[in-house]
């Protein structure tokens, strides 16, 4: 259920801060958000897949921690990321 290489490269290209950026919080949050949406669609079909549900909750916690870090470090980067990903409605 991992992301395909092309999809991952497209997300990295959209959210990177500089040429070889793959580890900034923005890129990590964008990749995790994409995986969360894929797993959510999977769980709509397979309602009793509790192992995947646990993995989803782990990813949500990881994204939350990264967002908290980014909010403490640079509020403007946090706000632009939230707006571009469509989080916090």
Structure description:
The chain has 89 residues and is mainly α. The protein contains four helices and no strands. The protein has helices at 5-15, 25-45, 50-73, 75-85. It is globular, with a radius of gyration of 14 Å. The protein starts with a helix and ends with a helix.
A few lines on this structure:
This protein is mainly α and 89 residues long.
Give descriptors for this structure.
89 residues, mainly alpha, 4 helices, 0% strand, globular
Name the helix and strand elements from N-terminus to C-terminus, one letter apiece: HHHH
Tell me the helix content: over 70%
What is the 3D shape?
A: globular
The biggest beta sheet reads: none
- Ranges with pLDDT <50 over ≥5 residues? none
Q: Please report the total strand number as a whole number.
A: 0
The chain-level mean pLDDT equals 94
Q: Can you lay out the helices and strands and say which pair or pack?
A:
Layout: H1 5-15, H2 25-45, H3 50-73, H4 75-85
Helix pairs in contact: 1-2, 2-3, 3-4
């Amino acid at each position: 259920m991992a992301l395909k290489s092309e999809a991952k490269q497209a997300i990295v290209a959209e959210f990177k801060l500089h040429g070889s950026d793959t580890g900034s919080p923005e890129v990590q949050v964008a990749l995790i958000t994409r995986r969360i949406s894929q797993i959510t669609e999977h769980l709509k079909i397979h309602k009793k897949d509790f192992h995947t549900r646990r993995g989803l909750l782990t990813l949500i916690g990881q994204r939350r921690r990264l967002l908290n870090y980014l909010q403490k470090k640079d509020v403007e980067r946090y706000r632009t990321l939230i707006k571009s990903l469509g989080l916090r409605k």
